[in-house]
Amino acid sequence: MGILRLASPDSRRIDLGDGDWIEVVSEISKKTFNKLVAVMPTEVENGTLTVGQATSFQSSLFEVLVTGWSLEEPATVENYENLVREAATAIDDKLMEVFSEMTVGASEAKKQRKSRDT
Fold it and tell me: Which of 2, 31, 36, 88 lies 20 to 30 A from 64 at CA?
């Protein structure tokens, strides 16, 4: 298979412990990536995000990446924002890992291709 293909609609389940889980997309499209980049904080104070910046970005990650969860209620941003802090933090941590894998994975793949070509 060549490099040109559409992003897969497949998803994968991530364990949060104690029987809880979230389901996230396996890949994101260029359009989805651009949507996330548009809401990524650009100014960081003292090497850290402000609480408002982090909260906004985490909500965007949830909206874009999460397709389901172990709760009976639908996996909506509103329901996510109504979770107890500990539950939301557990989800936030996993979503940052997923997003990092998606972005670092793409750049690392590009580096590998370049090194093979030279």
Answer: 2
Q: Does residue 61 form part of some domain?
A: yes
Domain hosting residue 54, numbered range: 11-41+48-117
Look up residue 67 and give its DSSP letter. E
What is the rounded CA–CA span in Å between residue 35 and residue 113?
A: 26
Q: How far apart are CA 38 and CA 60, in angstroms?
A: 10
Tell me, yes or no, whether 4 lies in a domain.
no
The pLDDT value given to residue 13: 97
Q: Is residue 96 part of a domain?
A: yes
Q: What residues contact 58, with CB distance under 8 A and at least 6 apart?
A: 88, 92, 95
Backbone φ and ψ of 14, nearest 5°: -120, 125
The structural domain count of the chain equals 1
Q: What is the reported pTM?
A: 0.78
